[in-house]
């Protein structure tokens, strides 16, 4: 576990000069909300539907003996991480929605291990579903989900958090990895 020594209840403070200079959008836009559309949950649901449709129309089975137990373990672990992350966000009284403005910088719970525990759990859920169902299509869809989540959500969320929390967020980024 990474020891993150940052004010656990950091309130928005402003922007760093470096972030303001690098950003391609006005800082006020970043400060209000990271994005207009809640991409990550939509991407997850779309990937599940695509995996089921592809598995039905073009079956490509996973047949190794431990696939189902491994898939179940990934799903349970992913759900537990999701619940833990959402509980940490709720405890800090900030939003769980990726398109809403964050009122607090959450650095405890699963956020002390990774800056994006919910998105990691989404990937785990997709991989677990593929293994549990014996459907190979979920594996490339999990990778696609992670890449699209990065480009459509994470980059903007990072700008939003930096615009709102400045040096505290930069210190958090130095202490905790984006993924794992």
TrEMBL record:
One of its GO terms (cellular component) is endomembrane system. Residues 8-18 have a biased composition (Polar residues). Residues 1-24 are annotated as: Disordered. Keywords: Membrane, Methyltransferase, Transferase, Transmembrane, Transmembrane helix. The keyword Membrane applies. It is a multi-pass membrane protein. GO terms for molecular function: methyltransferase activity. It is found in: Endomembrane system. GO terms for biological process: methylation. It comes from the Bacteria. It holds the Pfam family PEMT. Its main location: membrane. The chain crosses the membrane at residues 36-58, 70-89, 119-152. PANTHER family: PROTEIN-S ISOPRENYLCYSTEINE O-METHYLTRANSFERASE, SLR1182 PROTEIN. This is Isoprenylcysteine carboxylmethyltransferase family protein. It comes from Pseudohoeflea suaedae.
């Amino acid at each position: 576990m990474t020891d993150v020594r940052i004010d656990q209840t950091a309130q928005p403070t402003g922007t760093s000069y470096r972030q303001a200079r690098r950003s391609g959008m006005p800082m006020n836009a970043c400060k209000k909300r990271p994005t207009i559309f809640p991409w990550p949950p939509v991407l997850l649901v779309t990937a599940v539907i695509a995996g089921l449709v592809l598995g039905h129309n073009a079956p490509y089975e996973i047949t190794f003996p431990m696939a189902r137990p491994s898939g179940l373990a990934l799903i349970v672990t992913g759900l537990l991480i999701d619940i833990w992350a959402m509980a940490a966000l709720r405890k800090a009284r900030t939003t769980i929605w990726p398109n809403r403005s964050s009122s607090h910088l959450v650095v405890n719970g699963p956020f002390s291990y990774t800056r994006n525990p919910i998105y990691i759990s989404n990937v785990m859920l997709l991989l677990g579903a593929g293994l549990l169902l014996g459907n190979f299509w979920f594996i490339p869809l999990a990778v696609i989900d992670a890449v699209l989540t990065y480009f459509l959500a994470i980059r903007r969320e990072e700008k939003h958090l930096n615009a709102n929390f400045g040096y505290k967020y930069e210190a958090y980024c130095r202490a905790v990895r984006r993924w794992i």
